Amino acid sequence: MARINSLYDAVIAGNRKSTVQMVEQNLNVGFDPTDLLEQTMIPAMKEVGFRFSRGEIYVPEMLIAARAMQAGLDLLEPILARTGARTQAKVAIGTVKGDLHDIGKNLVAIMLKGAGFEVEDLGVDCAVEKFASAVERGFTTLCLSALLTTTMPSMKSVVERFRDRPDVKIVVGGAPVTREFAQEIGADAFGEDANEAVQIVERLLVTEKQS
Amino acid sequence: MAEPAVESLEGFIFGNAPKPVCCGSDLVVGGGCVVPEINFTLPPIDIDDETWAEVRRQYEEMIVSVLGRAVALEAPGLLVEFETLPPMTDRPALGLEITRLLSDRMAESHAKHGLKTALRLTPNDTREFERPPRMRSGEHWDHMLEVIGRAAEHGADLIAVESTGGKEVCDEALVEADLAKIVFALGILGVRDMEFLWRHIVRECRSQGIVPSGDSACGFANTAMVLADRKMIPTVLAAVVRVASVPRSLTAYRVGAVGPSKDCAYEGPYLKAIEGVPISMEGRTAACAHLSPLGNISQAVCDCWSNESVQNVQSSGPTERLAERLRRPFGPAGLGSETRRCPQTLR
Question: CB distance A60–B175 less than 8 Å?
């Protein structure tokens, strides 16, 4: 199935009403819900991410698009769940222990949801145990955020906790965090911004499937 | 208030505030010269019982180096800000122990070299550690109050805070570019919390004979500034947020704070113009501070110039030329005529 341009444009423009209408219309005329999602809506959100990375749009515009996407997803998800056509990869995200900053973390969560992941937001000031509990519930991809240099060591604690769990993938990000730091503490990846974080999670999951 | 405290542009100048503040060991802020302010923090390290000796050693090293450099540069005075890290507010004994350590070294420097100093203690506003934040009771509130309530006995001379009332609403509003919500967060939630919090702080400070200095809209307007710098929200929105943050920060002064304002309160020029309090500013020339064109404006009217919060990382290289440059603006010409009374106590 080719991309449905009108739906694609509605998601990018953040037009929630049109997005919902078009998803309903396309479902009514027999379009496959998985195709709608994977051929049109997720690519639309990817384009939104790219535009943000290129500095062409601001966060509020990205959020409006994400909400339109979510409104469409709300219609699709019950159908997809019923048919078992698509299992979503599960990602847990949180700001590490001692750190209360959550703007960046929230953006990554929104973009991950927009990309079709099942996201559990663990909140702020998350101790290692909170991440461990998420892993026990099947969230084997963890995104860790920190804004303070003083809380960055908490990221290392989380990484060390899952040292013997190669199936658990850990992505770190936040203003003071660097690729070098991610490498130094043994994280699986570093996300420069919300868009890159999504790409990295996708890449990690593809690699995981292939291995 | 019918008129602003600064009546004309001619009187709106660095180093001079209509209501100067005397604090610590004979330090006067806003009384004729710009006072250097230094704020430092730890390199990445866990703060717990195991690392505590190293934490102490780091602070000792920082304060000794800073005081040594201030003496070498013949600084007219030095305001030291100790901004606690969250574990040091949650365990007040830790924060107070470092306060004592810094204060002792500053007192020694004053006794030995005559360096005029004051120690500004800034506990974290840990109330937002609970989500939703519990602002007027609970463990975090009690710990904050304990740090503030025992500040003077551990050598602090001023109290400041970067309070967070309404921040969770403002954070959301910023990324949504929701101006009405921003104004509600700052103008209603922020102002109400500032009034509540600063009445407590002012009462505590007065009972201990120390200075209730001021607050900062750092968590609001600086967040907007940084988001704009990173092209996440429009710069114009960040500028509007800064102006919208002024009534919130002014509230501290309306209930008895006297300045100097916090260095990261880039709304400082408004506070000085309206209330006449001395202000501390950072930015532009402070390599680790927020990079903002506002630095050009704010520096023009500052009473303390701050380096923002620098980590204890040793640098090397010749510093003589830098030292010479620093000597000039802080030369002793403007000193000596300042009154020894504490003007803020008269207000």
Answer: yes
This model of the complex carries an ipTM of 0.80
| pTM for this model (two decimals) | 0.84
Count A/B contacts: CB-CB distance under 8 Å. Answer: 47
Strand residues in B169-285 grouped as ranges (E): 211-215, 280-281
The pLDDT tens digits for B251-299 are 999 999 999 999 999 999 999 999 999 999 986 666 666 666 666 677 8
> How far apart are the CA of A117 and the nearest CA of chain B, in angstroms?
21
Q: Which residues contact A140 (CB under 8 A, 6 or more apart)?
A: A90, A167, A168, A169
- Answer whether B176 sits within 8 Å of A98, measured CB to CB: no
Strands (DSSP E) along chain A, which ranges?
Answer: 90-96, 118-126, 141-145, 169-173, 189-191
With CA atoms as reference, the chain A residue closest to B126 would be: A100
- Say whether A60 and B233 touch across the interface (CB within 8 A): yes
Cβ partners under 8 Å of residue B219, min gap 6:
B162, B163, B164, B167, B170
Contacts of residue B47 in chain A, CB cutoff 8 Å? 150
